[in-house]
Each structure stands twice: as C-alpha cells, then as structure tokens.
Write a structure and sequence with these properties.
The chain has 108 residues and is of the alpha+beta class. It contains 2 helices and 3 strands.
C-alpha cells in the first residue's frame, strides 16, 4: 500500500487597491460647472401647488426660460422652500469641491 504524505499548503492572498488623492482629481467639464452654478441660484427655482395639495419644487432649464424640471414634492410650502434651500446648499458644496483642496491649517 502506497501512502502519500499530504502537505498542508497555505495560499496567500494579496489585496491591491488603487487610491487617488485630490492632486490627481480630474477637472469637471466647464458645461457641468455652468449647470451647477445655474441650479445653485435661488432665482432659478420655483414652487408650484399640485392638484392634490402638495407643493412641488422645480428649477428652470439653463437654456430655456419656459422649461422647468420637478425635483421634490412636499406637504407644506415651508417644507418645499426648505428643500430648495437644501438643494442650493448641496450644489454650492459641489461647486466648492471643483476648486480642489483648500488649506485648512499650516505649521511652522
């Protein structure tokens, strides 16, 4: 009878990942930045009341004064305006991020 000695081989697994820093950040298309600036202005927003009593927030199309895009629906007028303010804050943060990293502290 032939007996084989089994050797317990351990397999090593390596995980590789790639990371990017802000220095390697790709720049946004100027057209996208223009659209972000457009929706970050409150004058390009409106609130309409729907037949069911809800309020709908909408922003104007960048190219056409007569075209509006619905964004959210809220039960109250105050809630709709708060939603617009939140959206504007969101788009302003996106615009700020396009400027790249900012220095928050320096050392001597």
């Amino acid at each position: 009878m032939l007996r084989l000695n089994h050797v317990n081989l351990k397999t090593m697994t390596y995980f590789y990942y790639r990371s990017n820093t802000m220095n390697n950040q790709t720049q946004l298309n100027p057209e996208i930045i223009k659209k972000l600036q457009h929706v970050a202005e409150k004058s390009n927003w409106r609130i309409t009341q729907l037949p069911n009593g809800f309020f709908q927030t909408e922003h104007r199309d960048i190219d056409s004064e007569d075209v509006w895009y619905d964004v959210t629906r809220r039960e109250t007028l105050a809630g709709a305006e708060a939603a617009i303010d939140g959206s504007i804050e969101h788009y302003n943060k996106k615009l700020e991020a396009t400027k790249g990293p900012k220095v928050v502290k320096t050392f001597e």
